[in-house]
Write a structure and sequence with these properties.
Elements: E1 13-19, H1 26-34, E2 41-47, H2 54-64, E3 68-72, H3 79-89, E4 94-97, H4 109-120, E5 124-128, E6 131-134, E7 143-146, E8 157-160, E9 177-180, H5 181-186, H6 198-208, E10 212-218, E11 222-224, H7 236-255, H8 266-281, H9 284-289, H10 294-310, H11 327-331, H12 334-343, H13 347-357, H14 367-378, E12 384-386, E13 392-394, H15 401-410, H16 419-424, H17 426-433, H18 435-441, H19 449-464, H20 471-476, H21 478-483, H22 488-497
Parallel strand pairs: 1-2, 1-4, 2-3, 5-10, 6-11
Antiparallel strand pairs: 4-9, 5-9, 6-7, 8-10, 12-13
Helix pairs in contact: 6-7, 7-8, 7-10, 10-12, 12-13, 12-14, 14-15, 17-18
Length: 504
Amino acid sequence: MATDTGQTEGPRVSVIIPVHGVEAYIEDCIASVQAQDLASLEIITVNDVSPDDAQQVIDRLAADDPRIRPMVLTENVGQGFARNRALEVATGEYVWFIDGDDWMPDTGFLSRAVALADTTASDMVRGRKLYHAVERKAGQPLRLVPDEAERRFSETRAGIALADDPFVLESWHFWLWLYRRSFLDDHGIRFALTQMEERPFVVEALLHADRISLLAVEATRYRQRAQSTMRRARTMEDNARLLQNLSLVVDSFDKAGAVDRTSPLRAHLNVAMTQFLEIIFFREAFADVRTRSQSDRDAFWRQASAAFRRAAFTPADIVPGLAGQNDAALEARAYHLAVAGLGADDPAVTALAVDFGFPPEAGEVPDAVARTLADYAAHRPGAHATHRNASTVVNYGLFGWRLWGLAPMLALVVPRAQRAAFRAEPSTYAHRHWARGAALAFPTGDPARPFKFWMPVFARILAAQGLAGHVPRFRRDPVKFVRTLATPLERLAGRLLFPAGELR
């Protein structure tokens, strides 16, 4: 028999389920909520103009369970705004969100979450998401993939403040939290976006919460469907929504005073911005944007760089060890280089960082490349500066890393008495002793000079080889052209020739 906790007047929890295209899953989702041993709840389903027969399933279940309150919208507003509509009519003391294709594996979760919220006076209580339940094809068995971020949430923590743990923000998911409904209403916390809507909502809520709790019990089993947003081809609308997420999150932190480096919430801002750096630039978004028109690339860059600069985010603020990070790129300081480019409003620098984040098939990023990246992250091309070891560093521009890679070989032609000076500062040595050749191959001024020099030469070679039809494509995007040549060896050569990405 179902048990209950706490008050008897009105439901303890309003469970809100947006419904769109989930006919095959909605019954299992609702059944998992009905099976909770907290009987005092209402289940608000919001049919967001679903194109299937999901509503028939809901109506059948509602006929046997008065706790189910179906809502049917007449216009498609999207998941976020559908939840807002449900919040307007919810009567529960607490609110729990779950999507129509997910389910709750632990029948005792809601009762334990409510009890913890009651005893600690928490505005928010978090449950765990141990797995992505990945669906290869509809109807086939699910593959359970562990969630890396959950390593932070293996212990129950009762009634803490957000400032106590910046890594609470490592998990993006707003739907892992039980919210006190009066808390959401008092602060006007609602979904500002209707797709890719997660981060602004949970950040805004956490920044306003006086007390939160973490419950080490699995709350929701998340289903990643074969046709989900995460697995389809990206659109510019997806990229725009991601930047909207970023901007709204920076807004929330800025209002909370977290941009100030003395703020106890500054560490939380750093975690959030490091995550956005990874998601925007070292996953699909930036790669997709680089295939778009120049105007699309420019607009994307303006918005992204403005948000990172508004957050006063520097290479020193990058937080290592977060779930999903590209460890090789982090160790090569590609993340640091990307942030340096954002701070300097220099897209070519960030493009270089992204390219180093995905090194050639030949192997790992050489140590010499990593050293050059570390220098470049702090200093612009052509600049002189003092390194951490107090020696003088010449920053040799986007192409200078080649000199580091060639240094062991070039040292063989350097007089023995001069090899120590060469190894300490190969760029300075090259420019002093091999001035003409070094200025072309390893510029300290214009990093695009070799690229500009060789571009017409390569165009002539293509024409001479009977490939004149390819010349317009080469001139339009020579980097992409060279890097997509026929064989792996040719592509590697193209990467070595033009490491910087989109130089124009």
